[in-house]
Amino acid sequence: MTGDDNSALARHLHQLSRKLPMARLLATLRVAGARVCGVSLKRGHNSVRLVFEHGRLTFRGLWMCERRYTCPTCSPRWLRKQRDAIQMLLADNDTLGGDSVMVSLSLAFPLGLTLSERWGILRDLNTKLGASKRSRTARAAAGKIGLVKVVHPIHGEHGWHVHLHLLYILNRGITGTEADKLKQVETAVWADLADKAGCAAEPGVQTYTRIGRTEGDFKRVARYLTKGIQEIELGRKAPNLDYYTCRLERGKNRSPWQMLDDATFHDDTDALAPLREWVEVMESATFQTVHLPRRLMTRLHEDAVAVRESPAGTAKDEVA
Predict the structure, then answer these.
(1) pTM (global) more than 0.85
(2) 289 pLDDT higher than 50
(3) Where along the chain do its domains lie?
(4) How far is CA 248 from CA 109, 137, 159, 194, in A?
């Protein structure tokens, strides 16, 4: 193997040394005798092989649970696909002349609500926001043709908090004034919806950020929306990715992966109860942490490839 291969092998051995203890702990939070992802055998001992290819280390012949939301072994594989897809979507839309806006929406929930109740309220309000005539008019005026939706749950001294990130894909470039107008309309609608649901949504807490149009900007957005990868694989050494963070993500609040790291490697027994609740909610309900506009992505990619391969190689003025 080359020096680069040796470095990659060492890195992935380190990641395995983190993921497997985390997976063992999660198995104890499910049911007695639950199999451990990446440890339990599919068949017999003779079926297990260690494979290193394409810069990644993989054990073949081990049972994989395929829990994309709650498994430290399976989730990074799934999140990497979402990260790459988001980055490609932004690059394709840029090729076609479109802008994008990162939206972060949060609520102040009544005390005493469970994680499932809070997530349900956030989901319902997001649906109503999209159905609002004022919001639909403002989005259409900005040129919105699709969105990426990501939900980040965090836990702190007041219990669970769930907030929403929406990445608006636009069919044209917009000015700062236009982005501010979109924010003004939608945050007013969001506040009205929150009030009717018994929550509060301070307009100044919600953020609308125009995304830059360089490859570095696209990478930062994609990494932030899928930051669970680094929280799982690097733990407390993960870099700060709060480029577009909601205010409540800062301070002593922790994501489920950060709590799992603390419980597994730093003997934080206080994290076990909220972790068990998180596992039960994510594995028994229909909540999604990441949703991508697949049809739009396919169409934009085909159009972007056609533009890049055309003799002129110039972007369209607008996305059709």
Answers:
(1) yes
(2) yes
(3) 3-60, 74-306
(4) 12, 29, 12, 17
